[in-house]
């Protein structure tokens, strides 16, 4: 038997209520604004480009507009704090390298945040190595020649990095310890200004991410002497590792996405799934590989595990370096 349901009569009140609901949804979205992605270092480098890729892909997947903000300062602490100070509504995100999450809690006793309590993991985004670069006019071609050159004049033993208390900073300190040369650290607000000064001759060398030096090295604007991985970088296959070049050290890092602790779990899940899907998409992978990073993606739980493991692994090395923030 076919049942014919009675047609619901539309009253004036029903029509007005439906109209109000239709108008309310855009109004609420307008009030909430775009999804904000904060990159805690200077704009212009590979990390900033990665943050924009992540923002674009998440926005596309969720049907939202996005805004990327570079908030440099204090080695990434200012941008990180901006996310922690945001409302816990799952609409403000941090796309960051390791340092503000792993290293700063070890070296800054007065750090104004606890990344394990104040941030919610969303997804690992990429992994990468570090590289030591010099100006091509510097009269050395190998790492061994660089060490000799620095020993001849202590003023040459200065290296720039993307900021104080980050992994390139500590990797430089580890190198200094291994070669027995006291190297002066010159922190910058990101890779881009450090490499600009390197090319301009204002700093003798820069330790930063492989991703930030690859294109400049290919163009002959800088010379990369060594990379930090246990194996050669697929992006700079002609450059030896530090170990191959005679200094037995190795290390690597990552970029990841976080939001403020207490954000809605459903929003965290949506963004995590969007990032994982993006890092598997061929077009996105090509873009990320073009930044000299390896696309990954992860669940929030997997990122939390990686965060804890890396904190435990780097703590003894950083403390053994004797670094004290000024």
From TrEMBL:
Highest taxon of the lineage: Bacteria
Signal peptide (from-to): 1-24
Alphabetical UniProt keywords: Signal
Protein's UniProt keywords contain Transferase: no
Keyword Iron-sulfur (UniProt): no
InterPro entries, per database record: BUG, Bug_dom1, TAT_signal
Family, per entry: Belongs to the UPF0065 (bug) family.
Protein name: ABC transporter substrate-binding protein
Gene source species: Phreatobacter aquaticus
């Amino acid at each position: 038997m076919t049942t014919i349901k009675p047609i619901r009569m539309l009253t004036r009140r029903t029509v007005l209520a439906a109209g109000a609901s239709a108008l309310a949804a855009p109004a609420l979205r307008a009030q909430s604004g775009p999804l904000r992605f904060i990159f805690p270092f200077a704009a212009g480098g590979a990390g900033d480009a990665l943050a924009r890729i992540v923002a674009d892909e998440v926005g596309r997947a969720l049907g939202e507009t996005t805004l990327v903000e570079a908030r440099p300062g204090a080695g990434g602490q200012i941008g990180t704090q901006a996310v922690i100070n945001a409302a816990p509504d799952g609409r403000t995100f941090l796309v960051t390298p390791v340092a503000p999450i792993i290293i700063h809690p070890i070296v800054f006793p007065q750090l104004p945040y606890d990344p394990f309590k104040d941030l919610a993991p969303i997804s690992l985004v990429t992994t990468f190595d570090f590289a030591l670069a010099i100006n091509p006019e510097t009269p050395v071609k190998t790492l061994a020649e660089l060490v000799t050159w620095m020993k001849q004049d202590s003023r040459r033993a200065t290296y720039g990095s993307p900021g104080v208390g980050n992994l390139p900073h500590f990797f430089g300190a580890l190198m200094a310890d291994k070669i027995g040369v006291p190297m002066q650290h010159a922190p910058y607000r990101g890779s881009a200004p450090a490499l600009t000064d390197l090319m301009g001759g204002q700093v003798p060398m820069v330790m930063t991410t492989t991703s930030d030096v690859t294109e400049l090295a290919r163009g002959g604007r800088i010379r990369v002497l060594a990379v930090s991985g246990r194996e050669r970088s697929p992006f700079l296959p002609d450059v030896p590792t530090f170990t191959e070049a005679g200094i037995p050290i190795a290390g690597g890092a990552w970029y990841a996405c976080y939001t403020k602790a207490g954000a809605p779990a459903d929003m965290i899940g949506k963004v995590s799934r969007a990032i994982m899907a993006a890092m598997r998409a061929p077009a996105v992978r090509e873009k990320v590989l073009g930044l000299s990073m390896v696309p990954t993606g992860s669940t929030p739980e997997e990122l939390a595990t990686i965060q804890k493991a890396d904190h435990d692994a780097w703590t003894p090395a950083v403390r053994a370096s004797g670094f004290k923030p000024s």
